[in-house]
Automatic annotation (TrEMBL):
It comes from Paenibacillus sediminis. Homodimer. NCBIfam families: purR_Bsub. InterPro entries: PRTase-like, PRTase_dom, Pur/Pyrimidine_PRTase, PuR_N, PurR_Bsub, WH-like_DNA-bd_sf, WH_DNA-bd_sf. PANTHER family: HYPOXANTHINE/GUANINE PHOSPHORIBOSYLTRANSFERASE (PTHR43864), PUR OPERON REPRESSOR (PTHR43864:SF2). This is Purine operon repressor. Belongs to the purine/pyrimidine phosphoribosyltransferase family. PurR subfamily.
Length: 275
């Protein structure tokens, strides 16, 4: 039991909530922790709730009753998310990102925790109302994005491998077609990694026609799992609609034009901002 001034208690309660997103916390947890009456704790939570919502940090949901409590859900206002993505697009448009073969260098952006945390918060906002059990991505560039999203939703992450690892135990493997040359690839998932009938949120850093994500969806069918949603950080806007293998997905940014000769790159906010 801690006896703290109210100002200190507010700070500590805020940190407690931020570190436990999407977790129901009974009021008795705070009352016992600080030796305070539930009425005082409720007043504190009302203050925190107001600050969270005004600052585009998230929302506090209150559940009444004996089994009730409070649950913090990260939420980024659409206008704040748009401002962040517009800045992200400006970084993508740097001409030195264009590599031979028309590939776009993104590893430095994917390696910045501050950027990934914001992207994770946007996905947590977009998919907050979905019933999700686990986050899935394919190695390797999607890993930072998956863990950032998992942290914001308080969900575990499952990694699909390109090659089977002996330390993964028995696994399910499938072949899928991906890339502009329609080449055949293999992906594999340990049988222990995912429970059957799980509801899965797929996230990926980049999508062209959607072959890799379609492969993950086919792999999930082997586990009798359900795709609860698909989130893509960056999609290619240069793919014809009849070549696109997916229609139901959320993208945060879109490549609208790429010219290898002039090293011109144009990017814009994705379909998440179309509403």
């Amino acid at each position: 039991m801690k006896k703290l001034k109210r100002s200190a208690r507010l700070v500590e309660m805020t940190e407690f909530l931020l570190s436990r997103p999407h977790t129901l916390i009974p009021l008795t947890t705070f009352a016992d922790r600080y030796g305070a009456a539930k009425s005082s704790i409720s007043e504190d939570l009302a203050i925190i709730k107001e600050v969270f919502e005004e600052g585009s940090i998230g929302v506090l949901h209150t559940l009444a009753g004996a089994a009730g409590g409070v649950k913090f859900m990260p939420k980024l206002h659409k206008e704040d998310a748009l401002s962040f993505i517009q800045n992200f697009c400006r970084q993508l448009e740097q001409s030195d990102r264009l590599l031979p073969g028309g590939y776009l260098y993104m590893s430095d952006l994917l390696g910045q925790p501050a950027i990934m945390n914001e992207v994770g918060k946007i996905f947590a906002t977009a998919f907050a109302d979905r019933d999700i059990d686990v986050i899935m991505t394919v190695e390797t560039k999607g890993i930072p994005l998956a863990y950032a999203t998992g942290a914001q939703l308080n969900l575990p992450v499952v990694l699909v491998r390109r090659d089977h690892q002996v330390t993964e135990g028995s696994a399910v493997s499938i072949n899928y077609v991906s890339g502009s040359h329609k080449s055949l690839h293999t992906m594999t998932l340990s049988r222990r990694a995912l429970k059957e009938k799980s509801r899965v949120l797929i996230v990926d850093d980049f999508m062209k026609a959607g072959g890799t994500i379609k492969g993950m969806m086919d792999l999930l069918a082997e586990f009798d799992a359900t795709v609860a949603g698909v989130g893509v950080l960056l999609e290619s806007g240069t793919v014809d609609s009849d070549e696109r293998l997916l229609t139901d997905y959320i993208s945060l940014a879109k490549l609208t034009a790429v010219d290898s000769k002039t090293k011109m790159i144009e990017a814009a906010p994705g379909n998440y901002f179309n509403d």
